[in-house]
Amino acid sequence: MHSMVSGEKSERSGAPARSGAARTRGRPRSFDRATALEAALLAFWEHGYEATSVSDLTRVMDIGAPSLYAAFGDKRSLFEEVVQEYGVRYGSFGDRALAEEPTARAGIERMLREAAAEYTAPGRPHGCLVIHAAANCSTAEVEESLRRRRNANIAAIERRIDADVVEGVLPPDTDAAALARYTGAMIQGMSQQARDGASRAELEALAEIALAVWPRG
To answer: Picking from 1-15, 16-30, 66-80, 123-137, which range would have the lowest pLDDT averaged per residue?
Structure first.
């Protein structure tokens, strides 16, 4: 997909060809697709899905509604692309922590510490888009999509804990499902705390307390 998208009305209209100058004079200006997508991402991150209108999006993306629909589809399609982009650019720290650390506990410790940093980073909305965008959402398909993503994250944590139980790193009676859901609750709570103004240091203190309940092998 091209990064530069232009207005809709061009050769598709079937009008007779004119000179290059005549064809381009009335054409809407091109825009950078990646820049527009980032602007939409920040709007949804700040205000959530439901509270962000199409007019809000065209304003922050600096494009007209026809260009938005031509380049991204409808609001829901745009939001789905935003969530994908958010996962790649801002939300992948948890997956990396679980994959790169030698134990589930080390992965969760890193995940919580990085969440404290990511959720309070300056210059962008606080908290997690996937968690916050679902607030007061009355669009069932969007709500369900975000719920699946959150539950998939918890399932990934549970699998990592189960692996440590099998390998003897954690006690055999470890309740992997409960521990994973507890971790998910901490992540979601830290996101909301960040939205409410908690600092990085305050969230890191929460992470320390959360890790204190972790079973030892």
So the answer is: 1-15
The pLDDT value given to residue 217: 64
Residue type at 85 in one-letter notation:
E
Report which of 177, 78, 182, 184 is spatially closest to residue 131, judged by C-alpha positions. 184
Query: What is the average per-residue pLDDT within 21-42?
Result: 72
**pLDDT tens-digit readout, 64-113:** 999 999 999 999 999 999 999 999 999 999 999 999 999 999 999 999 99
Length, in residues, of the chain: 217
Residue 177 burial by CB count (10 A; 0-12/13-18/19+): exposed, middle or buried?
middle
Q: How far is CA 34 from CA 28, 71, 152, 181, in A?
A: 18, 11, 27, 35
* Count of beta carbons in the 10 Å neighbourhood of residue 181: 15
pLDDT attached to residue 25: 42
Neighbours of 192 (CB within 10 A): 16
Q: Contact, 181 vs 136, CB < 8 A?
A: no
**156 vs 12, residue with greater confidence:** 156
**Helix, strand or coil, per DSSP, at residue 27:** coil
Record the tokens describing residue 56, joined without a space: 């809000």
Q: What's the Cα-to-Cα distance from 143 to each of 48, 56, 76, rounded to whole Å?
A: 11, 20, 11
> For tokens 């204190």, what's the residue?
212
Could you tell me if 54 and 79 are in contact, meaning their C-beta atoms sit under 8 angstroms apart? no
- What is residue 30's DSSP assignment? P
